[in-house]
Amino acid sequence: MAQHLEPVRIPVPGGKVIEELAGRVATGHNNYSVARMSAPAGWDEPTQRPDFDEVTYVLAGELLVHTEAGTETVGAGRGVLTRAGERVRYEAGPEGADYVAVCVPAFSEEGAHRA
């Protein structure tokens, strides 16, 4: 039977809003997580080297994805995949960013290994 999911808002600093639809907080499992994020212009986060793969799909605005290979600007309707163990830092573009992130296994603060 299909299970109806309600997003759970997770507070974070810097004005970013996270609404987890599935994952450790929303559904209590850790094999994957799905969350919608809204980040204002100027938002960024510390560099991380996560234990999970992350697929990021931008719905509106732009997201800058900084890796050791350079910076990728990901606009609305585009996505990017970062792999577990890869050094990465996310930053919202000049108009902010609204995006969906899918992490396998599920996102965890400990598993992000932020600098």
Provide a descriptive summary of the structure in words.
- The structure is a single chain.
- The chain has 115 residues and is mostly beta strands.
- It has one helix at 109-112, and strands spanning 8-11, 17-22, 33-39, 53-67, 70-75, 79-82, 88-104.
- InterPro entries: RmlC-like_jellyroll, RmlC_Cupin_sf.
- It comes from Ornithinimicrobium ciconiae.
Total number of distinct structural domains: 1
What is the terminal separation in angstroms?
Answer: 41 Å
Number of H- or I-type helical stretches: 1
CATH class: Mainly Beta
Question: What is the helical fraction, as a range of percent?
Answer: under 10%
What is the 3D form? globular
Taken in chain order, the helices and strands follow as EEEEEEEH
Q: How is the biggest beta sheet arranged?
A: 7 strands, antiparallel
Question: What's the short story on this structure?
Answer:
The chain is mainly beta and 115 residues long.
